């Protein structure tokens, strides 16, 4: 019996990869952690017939949303689609799965990891209070339930999502107290040549910002976030404007984010070589969509490079075509996009990195008080990490720091705290050595998601 081609993730990259496998007449298993296709960008709206759905999407996005879901519906009808299924480990092309209390495994002929991206957050004192959400989480709640995270919300950080999510909240009738962008305006101006590679997206972003300003919503660039205040929950946000003047904005909720990072833990565990991407300030799988990162292992979409939904469709198709070629399977009749089709997307993303830069090293973490929680799962503070580094017990090794402090050992496995922890480690190392180099990383380890401690064999995972 031949083994199936397995695609992990049913966002744009995963659906495009599954299409190519189906076109070639292959058996396909499509594993989706969510309950419906779409990923984050095309997440299924709670009630598509509700007029609020169109308001959330905006006129320019509604067409692409509906076109994607038409493709997804056609593909999932032709494959073994398993929604609500988590992949928590992979070894020798055997994937370990969980759904509810059921544990199972599946062996694959080849695997395309189209696992998308996760949010990056630079901690702020008070960021663990009830009422503080990641920008993606705030967007998900709005899309899924037409519910806002608060009655009066501040959106802050350094991300193009700032303006998109704030505009969606405003269109939905929620009160947006302010948009506080930590990236300076000068960086956005310098980024314009790159952003011009995708003029439609650039115009959409500008429209969102202008709409917010025309509505009287304060929009500030180059701010410094000082603390999220309140006793039992969020009561306000203290910050400094670009001139260093102290400001306070009253609010009962905060949407916080600093861009995205590839969700590449499974690829790393499967054997992918990881390389440092200085522009993205993180480690990513090596190679391209058209090459295996390990025998029988391919990565696509934002799981390998942050490029957005349209590029993910191209990337997923190219990864699946590479898997077919390496497996000696004849392709179908559909055309596979050329690598050059990604060029404009790469230039646009280069511009976004300049416009919404992730703060580096000492700049990112020097102002954080020692009692600031870095790892909320294990309640590890900035002071705990600094003490380990100052005493020399961790020798500047991120994974030694992890072993001694438990940073990154909680439920999120370092997805949210890892970037900030690395910046603290690097900031402590630079004064000692006087030089900078590629920062280390917290190595991915299974399980990459929480799994049940028992399995119910009476349930059927498929």
UniProtKB/TrEMBL annotation:
Pfam families: Fer2_BFD, Pyr_redox_2. This is NADPH-dependent 2,4-dienoyl-CoA reductase, sulfur reductase. Gene3D superfamilies: BFD-like [2Fe-2S]-binding domain, FAD/NAD(P)-binding domain. Residues 432-462 are annotated as: Disordered. The keyword GTP-binding does not apply. Residues 5-312 form the FAD/NAD(P)-binding domain. Residues 373-426 form the BFD-like [2Fe-2S]-binding domain. Keywords: Oxidoreductase. PANTHER family: ANAEROBIC GLYCEROL-3-PHOSPHATE DEHYDROGENASE SUBUNIT B (PTHR42949). One of its GO terms (molecular function) is oxidoreductase activity. It comes from the Bacteria.
């Amino acid at each position: 019996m031949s083994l199936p081609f397995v695609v992990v993730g049913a966002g744009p990259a995963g659906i495009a990869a599954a299409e190519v496998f189906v076109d070639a007449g292959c058996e396909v298993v499509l594993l989706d952690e969510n309950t419906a296709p779409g990923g984050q960008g095309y997440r299924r709206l709670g009630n598509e017939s509700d007029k609020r759905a169109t308001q959330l999407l905006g006129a320019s996005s509604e067409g692409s949303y509906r076109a994607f879901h038409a493709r997804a519906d056609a593909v999932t009808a032709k494959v073994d689609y398993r929604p609500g299924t988590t992949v928590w480990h992979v070894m020798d092309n055997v994937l370990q799965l969980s759904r509810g209390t059921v544990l199972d495994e599946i062996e694959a002929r080849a695997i395309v990891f189209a696992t998308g991206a996760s949010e990056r957050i630079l901690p702020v004192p008070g960021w663990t209070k009830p009422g503080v959400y990641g920008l993606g989480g705030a967007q998900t709640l709005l899309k899924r339930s037409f519910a806002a995270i608060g009655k009066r919300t501040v959106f802050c950080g350094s991300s193009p999502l700032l303006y998109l999510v704030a505009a969606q909240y405003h269109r939905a009738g929620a009160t947006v107290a302010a948009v506080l962008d930590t990236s300076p305006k000068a960086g956005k101006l310098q980024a314009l040549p790159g952003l011009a590679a995708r003029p439609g997206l650039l115009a959409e972003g500008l429209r969102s910002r202008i709409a917010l300003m025309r509505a009287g919503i304060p929009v500030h660039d180059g701010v410094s976030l000082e603390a999220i205040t309140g006793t039992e929950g969020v009561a306000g946000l203290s910050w400094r404007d670009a001139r260093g003047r102290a400001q306070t904005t009253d609010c009962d909720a905060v949407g916080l984010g600093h861009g995205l990072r590839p969700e590449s833990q499974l690829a790393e565990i499967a054997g992918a070589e990881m390389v440092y991407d200085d522009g993205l300030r993180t480690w990513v799988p090596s190679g391209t969509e058209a090459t295996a990162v390990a025998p029988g292992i391919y990565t696509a979409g934002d799981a390998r490079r942050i490029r957005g939904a349209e590029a993910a469709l191209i990337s997923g198709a190219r990864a699946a075509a590479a898997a077919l070629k390496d497996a000696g399977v004849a392709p179908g009749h559909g055309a596979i996009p050329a690598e050059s089709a990604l060029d404009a997307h790469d230039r646009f993303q280069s511009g976004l990195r300049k416009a919404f830069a992730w703060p580096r090293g000492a700049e990112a973490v020097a102002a954080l008080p020692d009692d600031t929680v870095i790892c909320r799962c294990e309640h590890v503070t900035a002071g705990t990490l600094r003490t380990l580094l100052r005493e020399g017990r961790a020798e500047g090794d991120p994974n030694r720091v992890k072993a001694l402090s438990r940073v990154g050992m909680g439920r999120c496995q370092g997805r949210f705290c890892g970037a900030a922890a690395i910046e603290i480690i690097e900031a402590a190392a630079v004064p000692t050595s006087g030089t900078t180099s590629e920062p280390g990383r917290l190595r991915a380890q299974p399980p990459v998601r929480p799994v049940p401690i028992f399995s119910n064999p009476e349930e059927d995972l498929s």
